[in-house]
Amino acid sequence: MQAKLLKYLFSNRLTALLFIAFPTAMGIGTFLESFYSTTAAKIWIYNAWWFELIMALLTLNFLGNIFKYRLFKKDKWAVLLLHFSFILILLGAFVTRYFGFEGVMTIREGDESSKIISEKTFLTVLVDGEVNGITQRKKFVDEVLFSEHTSNNLEWNQEFNGQKFSVNYIKYIKNASEGLILDPDGDRYLKIVEANDGKRHEHFLKEGEIASIHNVLFTLNNSVDGAVNIRSESGLHYIKSPFSGTFMRMADQFKGEIIENNEQELLFRSLYAISNFQFVIPDPPLRGNF
Hints:
By secondary structure, the chain is an alpha+beta fold. The protein has three domains: 2-100, no CATH class; 117-168, no CATH class; 181-289, Tumour Suppressor Smad4 (Sandwich). It contains five helices and 18 strands. A hairpin with a 2-residue loop joins β3 (121-131) and β4 (134-144). It is elongated.
């Protein structure tokens, strides 16, 4: 049985089959990257056990053929060199797969950096609890590879201070972010947009609550001293600021002043500047679920 297996392992038929399967799999992986994502191609092809098996069989097949056809003879050195080339390529792929490290390093001109952002994704779970009356934390970290196009699996069975628990995969949403889903029966929210650090940030102010945005308090239909109070009533909208400032309507570049502690009409899609803080309110309050 073992002799038959070894004979088939080094046979020309298996060599031909592997030579067809390997490039075909890589070609399919290239199309999957284009149509879906690199992560999906890794899950389906490049990181799959059967793809690694193909490369392992190819390596063994090349090694076996070196001895089977006695390629160490001088007149066969050209073929021997070709076999060694393929073996080195496959060994390189093995080293890259299991010992390599991929990432992104951003370096500004004239600057230096010693940090790299790994292309790998890790899931971290922190479990807090009490042990003999003292609060302690247990940390679980594992490398994961998720795609919205594949069936992802994750199941952790762990324990904390003798209490067992599990973490299971439900759903993966790529580039998930919080936002308002419109719903006529939901609460009222007002969107406030600012970019004080150079990046656009959206904040949703819920009716009746107080929100602190860069240490500036905002309220919607809940007047509070010291806060930027916004009132929305019967389709009309007003703003009352504890600070003086300016505003500019973007549509026609109309400019005006904000008078301290004086209620004024709120202009949407206008740039407000108060207390070294700039913000825009693009739309009236909307009902929805956050």
